[in-house]
Amino acid sequence: MKTLRLGLLGFGNAGRAFAKILEEKKQEIQGSMECDIIVTGITTGSRGSLYNPEGIDLKKAWSELEKAGHFDKDGKNYCEMTSLEFVEKGEYDVIVEMTPLDIFTGQPATDHLRRAMERGKHAVSANKGPIAWHYKDLKELAEKMKVQFYYETTVMDGTPIFNLKDETLKFCKVTEVNGILNTTTNYVLEELATGKAYDDVIEEGKRIGFVEADPSMDIEGWDAAAKVTALLNVLMEADITPKEVDRTGIENITLKDIQKAESQGKVIKLLCTGTRTDGKVKASVKPTLVEKGSLLSVISGTSSVLQITTDLMGKLTIIEHDPELLQTGYGVFSDVLRIVRNLV
Ligand SMILES: NC(=O)c1ccc[n+]([C@@H]2O[C@H](COP(=O)([O-])OP(=O)(O)OC[C@H]3O[C@@H](n4cnc5c(N)ncnc54)[C@H](OP(=O)(O)O)[C@@H]3O)[C@@H](O)[C@H]2O)c1
Question: Which domain holds residue 55?
Fold first, then answer.
């Protein structure tokens, strides 16, 4: 039986969702893949860290955080190691980057991944910042160091997008991408359509958890821009950053605009697109009129949709329906399984 040692950077919603799947499937993986996956380190921003090269008790780790909001300072694996210290000195085979997104720089997540790969470690990122800002460099580093680097959950959680392209659509060239990738703006546009005032929609959205405390990254289209950049960098080798996306948010959309669209048999959606013109990939995020009844028009609430056009397989549409944290955790889990499968 082989052993694969993971280091988890960040143990919030995504980190714990992943840890729970890993724990639940541990025996099945041992049985079918002859691999024991253990976690040797977990770091957080302010809740302490855990380190044990022999393996950490994951159930105990998430219970402590969920009950006390902090790892037990008297626990035998407790330490104050920072993420970068763990990345540079810890014992592990795969770094799993699940720290918060910095949408304008992709840091410090990019440095975590870079330093780990420079040490010859495999890398998985749930954080889309590095894929939106530094994908080409990171990919080249992974190739140079002969390590595996995956990032499935960065766009549409565990829904297979990058896996689909890599594993199932071999030799298909992606020529165009369209999608509705930001769910907050879906929600806000739908609620505005019922006649509610913008401020009331935002406040209610915050209360029920559909809108972030600071909604500007979603409303102004930055989150969608980071997602479409990540997609285009990977699927179309775009080598662009979110700054190069032609971006318009939904902050100026009014009930009048929505009603006008309705009268033309259309709905307004924040559409992400990527096309190649004269060899250069162009990306945009814009409120767009889409035909009522079309696949794009029926995507609502927390669901998202991606259409990819390819040379050999035409246009494919992938919908993620009402995702929960389980699907976020699964995306990370599927990347780790890919690493196990490809171990020599
Ligand atoms: N949640 C989702 O549905 C989802 C879906 C796809 C992708 N993602 C991505 O996954 C990542 C994590 O998201 P999340 O929802 O789990 O966020 P979260 O619940 O806010 O958790 C973030 C975790 O990272 C820790 N952290 C902060 N700074 C750190 C640092 N420098 N080193 C190590 N840990 C650090 C936090 O610790 P403290 O609490 O102590 O600060 C916390 O444990 C983000 O990049 C996000 O974009 C999330």
Answer: 2-158+325-343
